[in-house]
Amino acid sequence: MSIESQKPEEVSFPLWVDQPDALGRVEARLAGGDISQVDAQHLRQFIEQGFVIIPGAISPEHVDLINRDIDTMHNTPERYLVKYQGKQFGHPASADLPDKCRILDMYVPSEASLAAILADPITHFLSLVYGQPPLAFQTLTFLRGSEQSMHKDISYVVVDKPLTLTASWIALEDVKPGSGELMYYPGSHRDKVFLFKDKHIAWNPNRDGKVTHVEYLDFIKRAALLRGVNEAYFLPKKGDALIWHANLAHGGAPITDSASSRRSLVTHYCAYEGAPNYASVSPARFFKRPFGQGYYSSKRYDLAETAHPERPWLMG
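Request: output the structure for the sequence above.
Response:
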């Protein structure tokens, strides 16, 4: 297999892009006229490096619509959910949001955001990876850089088949050095999968503790050192998108320019036939809605057809 696992019985790699013959399949599909040259280039990069960059995936004019929704969401605060300081949830009380806040699942109240995370260039590529439409199941909208340590999404975001997880990062403005730009280790998706307590892919703070989490972060750094790989930095233009593999190590660079914002829209996906963990926790409240060439669901918003017509955005 392309990805080396410490516990093969605990980790499955159902995506064709993670199989030993993945590059050969790309060339066969290209020769057969099934995919374009651009498709083939994107797939090769995803297979070999664990990510692909799609310049201009979203038009600047469309990004302006998303930013308008961000700037005016305090006018209808009950529609939006924000997260402060790790665990505190609430509605935006003013246009000035704390630096470390994250807007949750903005694609439900903001149709502009929904159209972006399921834009044709993104859903087309993910459909090639999955062999079926993608399901967007959560987003985080950042106003400034997260400064988060290098990590891998499979350690925190749980889906029924862990390594079918993918993510997109859409720039809502031109990103400048020093703004806490996205950083990643190219090729790190091929590293061994870290298993907490030698058997769990996802970190559970109560079960695994902080010490094990420190070991996990060190594991990621040591793997990069062993391969002689340095951090790469994503400095996109407004509307550019980066899509990454579940096992790609990434994080937020330190903010050295305190005056710089770094607006971005991050989305997690799985295959349409898959499901995030919250689907098993609350199956009666799990709905897949179609949009464009993909689908979406949400843990925090009621997407049932019977949702209250005047307050369809609030769970509970």
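Residues 38 and 139 are 27 Å apart (CA to CA).
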